[in-house]
What does this fold into?
Amino acid sequence: MRLLTNSDVIERYFAAFNAGNIEGMLAELHENVAHHVNEGDVRIGKAEFAAFCMHMNRCYRETLTDIVVFAQGERGAAEFTVNGTYLETDSGCPKARGQTYVLPAGSFFSLAGDKITRVTTYYNKSDWVAQVS
It folds into this structure.
C-alpha cells in the first residue's frame, strides 16, 4: 500500500472541487483550517469554509484545468486555470448575466499529517472584473 503524499491530498482536494463535491473538499481539510480568500478575510474552520463554498456555488460555476501541483515537506502549491460562469450577482461585484471568464490562478497550502491546515488562493480580480463587465 502506497503512503498518501501531500501532493495526493492536494490533488484530491481539487478533484472534489471540480466535481462540485464540498464534502469531498472538507474531507481533505483540518478541522481548524485557515482559509485565506483572495482580497478577503481569513476564515477559520471547516464550517466557515463550507459556508464560503456554498456562497461561491450559488454565484459561480467553476472548473479548474491545467492544474500543476507542487509539494515539499509541509507546504504545497498549485497553479491552474479557472474556467467559470458568473451565475448570481455577488456583493460589491458587477451584475451577473451568465458571463463566462477564464483566469490564471494559484493556491498555496500548509499541511499536517494528511490534512490541509491552510489554503490561500490568488487570482487577478481586476482581470475578472474586466471579463464580466
The chain has one domain: 6-132. Residues 46-59 form the longest helix (14 residues). DSSP finds four helices and six strands in the chain. The two ends are 50 Å apart (CA to CA).
